[in-house]
Amino acid sequence: MQGTEIPGPYLDTPHGRLYRPLGQWWQIGVLIAAFFGGPAVGWVVGQVPGDLSETARTVLYVPYVAIFFLGYAAWVARLNAIAFDTIGRSLLKALFLLIVRKHKPKSAEDVLPSKEKLLEMAVRAQKAGASFGPASWPVALLAGLIATMFDSATGAPTLFLLVALTCLAWGYFLARLGRRSWLPFMEEG
């Protein structure tokens, strides 16, 4: 919403809390840090048992990177659904009325969403940034199960918990960044 400044760090709306986004360059910096943070977390987790093979340590990079990409993919899908729900439906309805019933809208306000609807859309888009959390659950389960196949003195249950819980924590961390508008919205094409 151009021209609308959020006073303070957030604005309470009837639809939920709308956070002030970071500046573009800060968001890009956080995005780069989050992108490289996944392999860094994987590296740290690989060091904890101390006796993992180099291949096992390399495999541990994958789930944290996967959470990043799956979370962003889910966020983009939700953004597309929100945009269609808010803007696309009214445009399709206006197009249908124009073609089938030969009824032309009186003004652009009849077709475009209201300021209140745009505010709701902005809040929903920010809430969709929390998509990293749900994306981390299947990755955590799968990565934990794969980690039980690694040879380590710490034992399979400990490795499962270590990998699964850190995957969930990484997903929660990225979800907080996305929800607070610290990560930029990804655009298709």
Describe the structure.
With 189 residues, the chain is mainly α. The chain has one domain. It contains six helices and two strands. It has helices at 24-47, 54-59, 61-100, 115-128, 132-147, 156-179; strands spanning 10-13, 16-19. Strands 1-2 form a two-stranded antiparallel sheet. A hairpin with a 2-residue loop joins strand 1 and strand 2. Helix 3 packs antiparallel against helix 5 (132-147). The protein is elongated. The model has no long low-confidence stretch (mean pLDDT 87).
Derived from helix and strand composition plus strand pairing, the structural class reads mainly alpha
Number of helices: 6
- Approximate helicity band: 55-70%
Beta-strand segment tally: 2
Distance between the termini: 21 Å
What general form does the structure show?
A: elongated
Order of helices and strands: EEHHHHHH
Q: Residue ranges: pLDDT <50 for 5 or more in a row?
A: none
How many domains, in number, for the residues?
Answer: 1
Major pleated sheet: 2 strands, antiparallel
Mean pLDDT over the full residue set: 87
How much of the polypeptide forms β-strand, as a percent range? under 5%
Strand order in the sheet with the most strands: 1-2
Kindly provide the radius of gyration, computed on alpha-carbon positions and rounded to a whole number of angstroms.
Answer: 22 Å
